[in-house]
Amino acid sequence: MTPDPHSAGFELPTPEGADQAKSLQLIEALVGKMRDGPLSFVDYMATVLYHPDWGYYGSGQVAFGVGGDFITAPERSRLFTDGLVYEWRQAIASGVAPAILEIGAGSGRLAIDLLDRLDAADMLPRSYTILEISPALAARQKANMREALPPAVVERVCWIDDWSTLAWSGGLVIANEVLDAMPVERFRWWPGSPETAERLAVGFDGQRFVWQGCPAPDSMRAAVEAIAARIERPIVAPREVVLAEYNPQLAPWFAQMRASLEAEGESWVYLFDYGSHTADVYRADRDQGTLKCHYRHLAHEDPFVYPGLQDITAWVDFQAVAEAAEAAGFELDGERSQAQWLLGTDVPQQVERQLQSRDSLVDQARLAQEFRELVMPTDMGERFRVMRLRLNRG
Questions:
Q1: DSSP secondary structure string, 344-368?
Q2: Alpha carbon 381 to chain centroid distance?
Q3: Ramachandran assignment for 301, one of left (phi > 0), alpha (psi -120 to 50 degrees), beta (any other)
Q4: CATH code for 73-181+255-272+320-392?
Q5: Which of 262 and 100 is assigned the larger pLDDT?
Q6: Which residues 6+ apart lie within 8 Å of 254 measured at CB?
Q7: CA distance 148 to 151
Q8: Global pTM?
């Protein structure tokens, strides 16, 4: 049952013995769950990512930054966090309560940089809450914060692992690259024709996991019909059925968030992620869907390689996100590319001032490169989008 490192289309690095053993334990557990038939992909993805002992995020296997599996915007540059400092100033000036909630804090890099910047500006939040379902990642975040921040700043941070324990009276809510890591369903169809949808479940052939076609359940048919309704027409006519994904957890996730943010006071919610609008996400020429896996900075499309040791993500359909958020009672207050968002803050002016103040050409080039990576269309500028939601309970 050893995972095949060649199935990604090229040879992936071989995990060390302890990691291989952990992955094999996860494989055995998954095979055990298949005694009554194949697993839905949403169940498979939830297990390989969030199992508390063997999952990629749940066990803390994930490695961020240079040398890890992928790099998020806060890991690339503090200029991203400077954009959030700008938003914080706007929120406070509008009367939003001085509290921050971060959902899924990763390595803690964003929280560390944001608190450091706000401390220097004498604008620290009254509280900084991190909702983290992985005990291993929460422990890593705490250690990183203790090493990087003054004790008086760290004291303002608290961790929760469930929405039900959140104490909230309004403030700023941040979710950076959370939606793309939520488990998705996978199906194949003729784009724009929901009656052709077939569910892709996960089976086991004795050696490795495999895709297994099954009739689409009613919930999937309803979801695919909603997708088709948001597409005016396929961009190109497909020659055959294509693969696609959707997130079935959006509605309950926003409903839970709304219930947990019920308080006298206003909340501004910022969602940062990579994705697009429905017609682009479900373009007929995306014949393999948008599912992407990352292992040691190598990207491929096989979610069955090294279960529990690699990241699995899918593009975010921001139209579906907007519909789910508004149905839960949030007000959509804008959605744009990361480039448009960042250029609309005071970050460009900060970059200009810093470039003028740095004597070293190397330092100037490094800063300019960081800014380009965040805003250029060929990098993160257009692939990543920003959505702001509001919830006013006053």
A1: TSSHHHHHHHHHHH---HHHHHHHH
A2: 16
A3: alpha
A4: 3.40.50.12710
A5: 100
A6: 324, 325, 327, 328, 330
A7: 9
A8: 0.92
